[in-house]
Amino acid sequence: MPFHQSSVVVATTAQFVRNLTEKAPALVDTAMTYLKPRLAILWHYAKVELVPPTPAEIPTAIQSLKKIVSGAQTSSFKQLTVKEALLNGLVATEVWTWFHAGEITGKHGIIGYDV
C-alpha cells in the first residue's frame, strides 16, 4: 500500500474515532433513557417469576402433576377447549426448548443433535 493511501486510512480512522468519542455520551444517554423503564419492568417480573418454589408451593405442584397424569390416563384432555390446548402446547414447547438449550449449553455445541 503506498504511503499516501495508508495516511488517508489513518486520517479516516482518526476522524471516525473522534466522531465516536464526541457522540458516545449522547448515544449512551439515549440508550439509558430507552432502556431504563424496560429494564425496570424486566426486573419486576424476574423477581416474581424466576424465584425457586417455596416449601409451601411444593404440595400444590405435586397435586398439579398428579392431575396431569390422571388426565392423561382417563383421556380427559379431550375435553379441553382449543385455547387451553394451545396454551398447553405452548408451555410444552417452551419446556422442550429450554431443555434442549440447556443440553446444548452443557455440551458446548450443537453437534450430536438432529436440528
Tell me what the structure shows.
The protein is mainly alpha-helical and 115 residues long. The protein is built from 3 helices and no strands. The longest helix is centred in the first third of the chain and has 47 residues. The model has no long low-confidence stretch (mean pLDDT 86).
Topology as a string of helices (H) and strands (E)? HHH
Largest sheet: none
Ends distance: 46 Å
Helix content: over 70%
> Tally of extended strands?
0
**pLDDT below 50 for ≥5 consecutive residues: which ranges?**
none
Average pLDDT rating: 86
C-alpha Rg, in Å?
27 Å
Q: Output the structural class.
A: mainly alpha
Overall 3D form: elongated
The helix count comes to 3
